[in-house]
Amino acid sequence: MNLYSRGDRMFVWVNMALVGLFALSTLYPFIYIAAISLSSGFEARAGNVVLLPLDVTLAAYKRVLSESTFWISYGNTFIYTIGGTITSLLFIIPGAYALSRPQLKGRRFWNLMVAFTMWFNAGLIPFFLNMRDLGLLDSYIGIIIGFAVNGFNIILLRNFFESIPASFEEAARMDGANEFQVLWKVFVPLSKPAIATVSLFCMVSRWNGFFWAMVLLQDENKIPLQVYLRHTIVTLSDDNEFGATLLSSPYSVETVTAAIIVCSIIPVLIIYPFIQKYFEKGILLGGVKE
Q: What is the domain count for the chain?
């Protein structure tokens, strides 16, 4: 017996078609960039590449991977991403735990102050002057510490902590646990989905960090991959090589740029599937209170 009416089946098929179109629209930019990176410089500059690579060549990848600056910037990006994410969690987890405690004096005020930073800040110039006065310009520690805390991540994790049943905390306190033990032995193990979600936000933000890295870092040996990508585009765009030998050049600004982008997203594509299962769960549970 068919439990679904004709209208229900039509609704399901329409939804599946819309989801499929949305998936294709999401995947197409990645496919296009990969196709550009594998195409010859002439085909890419002429705008002939639409879906599949034309005149396939690895010249752009050879150009990128042969540059020592690329590998230095790649390593710097890992330093900023891993070091920054760990540092952020060391601030965010205790901060979110403190704001979730009903016994915190002035709890509403402190929560308001954290939320306030999500909409308002001192501005670009005051922040730059503050970083300069603290001696954090052109340094690894400046990028790692200067952007360690984000109000949204604190509030997200705070909501998750508030959703944990009070009985777990009460049982730990009956066993003589103090605040630090309650946090690290009760709340942190129970909050793996939310912590994984916050970690993902921090990692993606650090990995894609561009503007402040460009402003604060002058030493080319300290720049991350995104700043290196901009430097490469500017350098190749000003290079006479692509004006005089356009027809014979095996790569172009477009193909080299695409190759760097492909190389930059590979670690994210590798890591994301392992923590995707925590992502939706962390978001949903973070908004539910007991």
A: 1
